[in-house]
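Workshop exercise sheet. Pairs work together: one partner reads the sequence aloud, the other fills in the structure field after running the prediction. Swap roles for the next sheet.
Pair: D.N. / O.F.
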Amino acid sequence: MQRITFVFGLALLLTACGDTSVAPVDKACTGLSDDKMIWVPGGSFVMGDDPHYPEEGPPRTVSVKGFWIDAHEVTNAQFAAFVKATGYKTMAERDPPKLAGAPPEMLAPGSAVFNTPSQEDPSWWRWVPGAQWRHPSGPQESIAGRDHEPVVQIAWQDAEAYARWAGKQLPSEEQWEYAARAGAAALPEPLDAKGQPQANYYQGVFPVKNLNTDGYIGRAPVGCFKPNAFGLYDMIGNVWEWTSAPGSRADASEPVNVIKGGSYLCAANYCARYRPAARQFQERGLGTDHIGFRLVDAAKAGPAS
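Structure field:
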């Protein structure tokens, strides 16, 4: 695992765009319990898209069996329960590899944090010592009082460890996209008939101004927007989500996996990856302040008919 490549300017290829200010005070937006899962009946659908992003196509017909999936992204409270029970340390909390030429800040545990580019600092991402799931953008940010927000700064290995503890699995890309589409045509932008945002993403012109029309500059507590037709919350926007699907990226120094759904940093004028077909390829050992996950339970029987 070579997180050092991030700092040396190799493309991370995440759809980040926007301001990373903290969201409003956390509150539960739904009455859902943390362990609520939704049954998604099996079926066939056209997976993929293609108009602007070649990695999304070509469209093809895919069939999936029925499965249970978390109603919302795994929250800070859920991940904290896992850590309390197991003593698990995330990748961001572990000592990074001591590679020749690494800048001093990368010799200490930390992770990738989005940086709004400026003339003085044109970098989109920076390595922040101390950035981890309890402090997503660094030591100055705490998740205290934000139990209902999705946990972030989660590497693929961290999501896998949580899944084993919970007796569940990361979804396949096919399961994830089928669940996100919920039998409906994908919208070019998640707006209702009155033009109001139906997901947590970046409104405005990136990176100049976030209009904050959806009410959240940063991560929103899970379930603050209407669920899709399957009853699933935040399948697009809020935070990217890990899948079990491996990917391919020429500049990656370690294996990569597919992440889906876009995040609060996606803007219509820049990336528009708040669509079910959107996909990116993320290094397994590196989380960021806008990547989380949800799980499926393939072993659990479906509801009685």
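Discussion prompt: The radius of gyration is 18 Å. What would you look at next?
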